[in-house]
Amino acid sequence: MKKWVELFTDGSCKGNPGPGGWGVLLRYQGHEKRLHGGEFMTTNNRMELTAAIQGLASLKRPCQIKLTTDSQYVRKGIMEWINQWKRKNWLNAARQPVKNADLWQQLDQCTKQHEIEWHWIKGHSGHRENEIADELANLGAVEHMPR
After folding, report:
1. What is the pLDDT of residues 95-112, one digit of tens each?
2. Residue 64 — left, alpha, or beta (φ > 0 → left; ψ -120 to 50 → alpha)?
3. The pLDDT of residue 3
4. Which of 15, 102, 117, 124 is catalytic?
5. Catalytic: 38?
6. Which entry of 36, 37, 38, 134 is annotated as an active-site residue?
7. Angle at 79 between CA 5 and CA 111, to 5 degrees
8. Does the bond joining 62 to the residue before it have cis omega, within 30 degrees of 0?
9. Of the listed 70, 129, 140, 144, which one is catalytic?
10. Is the pTM of this model over 0.90?
11. Is 11 marked active-site?
């Protein structure tokens, strides 16, 4: 039986594009672990995707996962849009290259070994775990701001 893990992810950007960060709160059997990082020049959507990728990549073995994000872009992309993008060789409905295809492909790879339930919650609404992920993402962005 696979272990149940909860992941709460968020991305942040100071300017869009600009310095950005990602944050992840992992919970397993009542224990919590916090991860964060960032990039000097990025976008909010790239950081939202990176948060999900980093959270999944941090797991050492296949798990059952409840992944909660405040990004409809990530949730709808992975649940609704990605299969069509793959069928169309990473072109969107307008026959243009899918934005952030490199990260969508990484996320697609990260999902293969896990069973994942994708959940969306409204950001900045007082949800404890989302607020923590947001703080971590902002920390990652601040750490990558020019000095």
Report:
1. 999 999 999 999 999 999
2. beta
3. 83
4. 124
5. no
6. 134
7. 45
8. no
9. 70
10. yes
11. yes
